[in-house]
């Protein structure tokens, strides 16, 4: 209760006296900012760290010991716009690999599934790899997607995230479905929602100012479940110029 009151007070203090853009305008500006990057495909290599319940899931999928608070491995994110994404997770302690592919809204898994990685792929694909052909169409597609997660895109407020001011689309109360957008550059910051089973997810897009990714991709993507971080993917090397083979998504 105290936390809820504190969050509400922060939102109220930020919003008071400030003009908050409507949800449609925020999503349109986000689509414009993304289109200005002229992205068609990209590949990101980095480290993936599993923690909390993610440790047992990764141990089972990759056949590695789980007698530690965190498991570290390698991750490769491959994206072709619009809406084709793949994440390959592996461990130096195992020959096994787990791959999650999303294409045309359908998921496919190679090896044993890592549930939190599937969430990461779904949200990266829907939010960072969306392109419906025009800014207006992309905005409408993004709006429909967020509303499908239960986010009320007509309700907006301001909050702080990672030391930056962000727009919040959705009911500002703690625990409600929300989509956050960094205010200054209109880049996605986080998406919070619950799935059909009732599990609460929070996917966070952090640090767009990294030399590894420039300003077109967050250096770190975190997946939180029920208030605990389960996966962190941190880019070490990224390329948005070389070709990404179509065969990766078939």
What form results from the Cα inertia axes?
globular
* Distance N to C terminus: 48 Å
Instruction: Tell me what the CATH architecture of the domain at 36-150 and 211-248 is.
Output: Clam
Q: Mean pLDDT, nearest integer? A: 93
Compute the CA-based radius of gyration. 18 Å
What fraction of the residues are assigned to beta strands by DSSP? 35-45%
CATH topology of the domain at 36-150 and 211-248: outer membrane lipoprotein receptor (LolB), chain A
- Percent of residues in helical segments? 25-40%
Q: How many beta-strand elements?
A: 12
Largest sheet: 12 strands, antiparallel
Helix/strand class: alpha+beta
Strands ordered across the widest β-sheet: 5-4-3-2-1-12-11-10-9-8-7-6
The level 1 CATH classification of the domain at 36-150 and 211-248 is: Mainly Beta
**Uncertain residue segments:** 1-9
Number of discrete helical segments: 5
H/E element sequence: HHEHEEEEHHEEEEEEE
What is this structure's SSE topology?
Elements: H1 2-15, H2 23-35, E1 41-51, H3 53-62, E2 70-80, E3 84-90, E4 97-103, E5 106-110, H4 115-128, H5 135-148, E6 156-161, E7 164-169, E8 178-182, E9 188-194, E10 200-206, E11 220-225, E12 228-239
Antiparallel strand pairs: 1-2, 1-12, 2-3, 3-4, 4-5, 6-7, 7-8, 8-9, 9-10, 10-11, 11-12
Description:
- The chain is of the alpha+beta class and 250 residues long.
- The chain has a domain at 36-150 and 211-248: outer membrane lipoprotein receptor (LolB), chain A.
- It is built from five helices and twelve strands.
- It has helices at 2-15, 23-35, 53-62, 115-128, 135-148; strands spanning 41-51, 70-80, 84-90, 97-103, 106-110, 156-161, 164-169, 178-182, 188-194, 200-206, 220-225, 228-239.
- Strands 5-4-3-2-1-12-11-10-9-8-7-6 form a twelve-stranded antiparallel beta sheet.
- Strand 2 and strand 3 form a beta hairpin.
- Helix 2 (23-35) crosses helix 5 (135-148).
- It is globular and about 55 Å long.
- It starts with a helix and ends in an 11-residue tail after the last strand.
- The relative contact order is 0.18.
- Residues 1-9 have low confidence and may be disordered.
């Amino acid at each position: 209760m105290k936390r809820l009151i504190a969050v509400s007070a922060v939102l109220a203090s930020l919003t008071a006296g400030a003009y908050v853009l409507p949800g449609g305008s925020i999503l349109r500006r986000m689509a414009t900012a993304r289109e200005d990057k002229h992205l068609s495909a990209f590949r990101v290599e980095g480290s993936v760290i599993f923690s909390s319940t993610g440790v047992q899931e990764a141990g089972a999928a990759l056949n590695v010991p789980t007698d530690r608070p965190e498991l570290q491995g390698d991750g490769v994110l491959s994206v072709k716009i619009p809406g084709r994404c793949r994440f390959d997770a592996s461990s130096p302690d195992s020959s096994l690999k787990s791959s999650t592919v999303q294409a045309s809204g359908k998921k496919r898994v190679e090896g044993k599934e890592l549930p939190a990685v599937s969430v990461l792929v779904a949200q990266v694909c829907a939010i960072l790899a969306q392109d419906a052909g025009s800014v207006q169409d992309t905005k409408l597609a993004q709006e429909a997607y967020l509303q499908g997660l239960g986010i009320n895109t007509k309700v907006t407020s301001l909050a702080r995230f990672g030391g930056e001011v962000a727009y919040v689309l959705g009911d500002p109360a703690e625990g409600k479905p929300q989509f956050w957008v960094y205010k200054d550059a209109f880049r996605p910051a986080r998406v919070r929602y619950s799935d059909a089973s009732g599990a609460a997810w929070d996917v966070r897009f952090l640090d767009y100012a990294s030399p590894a990714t420039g300003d077109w991709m967050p250096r770190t993507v975190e997946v939180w479940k029920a208030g605990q971080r389960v996966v962190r993917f941190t880019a070490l090397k990224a390329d948005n110029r070389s070709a990404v083979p179509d065969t990766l998504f078939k």
